[in-house]
């Protein structure tokens, strides 16, 4: 917005596209000048006072708050808003509100800081759409009286504290390692059972196992849980894949 845009001595006012100007006479609001050329009468003390943009605008709000399980998070909201096109809304936006952006930011803070503390961290990510709807409802109700319409208010990011993120990554890592260890233990038991069925006077099997290289994998030659028969296999070699280990087990005639 700009103020005190006094018209030229001849009374001609140019209003750009996507803008409007408020017209005053002796300091009182008399109307709205829409895009185009307007002729005012200077001797009647008519002038334009403010210029307002009718474009859609976006405000990024970052609000730090605490979840129910005492984790600090930063919730980022992108609010898209616009002044309504009717003259009454333009008048309200020009004369009833000094700074729309600060007002919107205050309402976003109020909704986020009253909603997130009731929810645990894991649920915040799942319920962000509901929080966004609450923000939109509150902003629409509060800003409509100032001539503004709220087009959208999506939550664009939920950023926990750095230490919390590291802890969450470690928890997920340990869960995956436990699953991998369980799979390897199951394979070890199955393989030991198959070896126990083999007879020493017959060529029982020649098997190639291709498994990921991992300290948890029991088919590593140095793994303590490897059966003696497998550990002494004479034909162990590395796979052509760097991330795999291939072990050939040959059971001879005894």
Task: Provide key terms for this protein.
alpha+beta; Tetrahydropterin Synthase, Chain A; 4-stranded antiparallel β-sheet; 13 strands; 6 helices; 3 domains; 254 residues; Band7/mec-2_domain; Band_7; disordered C terminus
Topology:
Elements: E1 2-3, E2 12-15, E3 19-25, E4 28-33, E5 36-39, E6 46-53, E7 57-66, E8 72-83, H1 87-95, H2 100-115, H3 121-126, H4 128-143, E9 148-152, E10 155-160, H5 162-197, E11 206-212, H6 228-231, E12 235-238, E13 244-250
Antiparallel strand pairs: 1-6, 2-5, 3-4, 3-6, 7-8, 8-9, 8-10, 11-13, 12-13
How would you explain this protein's 3D organization?
The structure is a single chain. This protein is α+β, with helices and mostly antiparallel strands and 254 residues long. The protein has 6 helices and 13 strands. The protein has helices spanning 87-95, 100-115, 121-126, 128-143, 162-197, 228-231; strands spanning 2-3, 12-15, 19-25, 28-33, 36-39, 46-53, 57-66, 72-83, 148-152, 155-160, 206-212, 235-238, 244-250. A 4-stranded antiparallel β-sheet has the order 1-6-3-4, with helices on one face. Helix 2 crosses helix 4 (128-143). The longest helix is centred in the C-terminal third of the chain and has 36 residues, at 162-197. Residues 201-211 and 225-254 have low confidence and may be disordered.
């Amino acid at each position: 917005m700009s103020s005190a845009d006094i018209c030229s001595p001849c009374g001609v006012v140019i209003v750009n596209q996507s803008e409007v100007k408020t017209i005053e006479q002796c300091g009182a609001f008399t109307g709205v000048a829409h895009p185009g050329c307007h002729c005012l009468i200077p001797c009647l003390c008519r002038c334009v006072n403010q210029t307002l943009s009718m474009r859609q605008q976006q405000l990024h709000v970052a609000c730090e708050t605490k979840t129910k399980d005492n984790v600090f998070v930063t919730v980022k909201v992108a609010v898209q808003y616009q002044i309504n096109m009717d003259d009454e809304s333009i008048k309200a936006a020009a004369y009833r509100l000094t700074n729309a952006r600060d007002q919107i930011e205050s309402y976003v803070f109020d909704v986020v800081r009253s909603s997130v503390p009731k929810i645990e961290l894991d649920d915040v990510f799942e319920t962000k759409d509901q929080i966004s709807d609450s923000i939109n409802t509150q902003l629409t109700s509060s800003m409509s009286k100032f001539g503004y319409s709220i087009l959208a208010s999506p939550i664009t990011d939920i950023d926990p504290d750095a230490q919390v993120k590291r802890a969450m990554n470690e928890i997920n890592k340990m869960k995956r390692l436990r699953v991998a260890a369980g799979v390897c233990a199951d394979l070890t038991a199955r393989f030991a059972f198959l070896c126990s069925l083999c007879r020493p006077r017959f060529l029982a099997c020649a098997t190639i196992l291709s498994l990921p290289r991992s300290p948890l994998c029991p088919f590593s030659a140095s793994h303590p849980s490897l059966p003696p028969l497998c550990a002494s296999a004479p034909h162990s070699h590395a796979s052509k894949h760097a991330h795999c280990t291939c072990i050939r087990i040959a059971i001879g005639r005894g």
